[in-house]
Amino acid sequence: MTTWTGHPFVIDVRPCRVLKGRFVWTISRRGYPKQRSIQTFATFEEARLAGKTNLAILISNWRRSDAAAEEPKALTAA
What is the pTM of this model? Predict the structure, then answer.
């Protein structure tokens, strides 16, 4: 059996609708926007690198919360 080891996030870098010649990024999870850039970037590459940095943080938090959910809960006596 194959285990899926990826993550559910997708990053999208595109030209800004408001400022011509500038770029923005959006990170989505299962088709819904999760996080967007609050600033624009002069080049596609700048926007991509900034988006990847934020994506790495989201993935890290997601993996941490996913691992915590899989840990067995300690039984406490009442």
Answer: 0.74
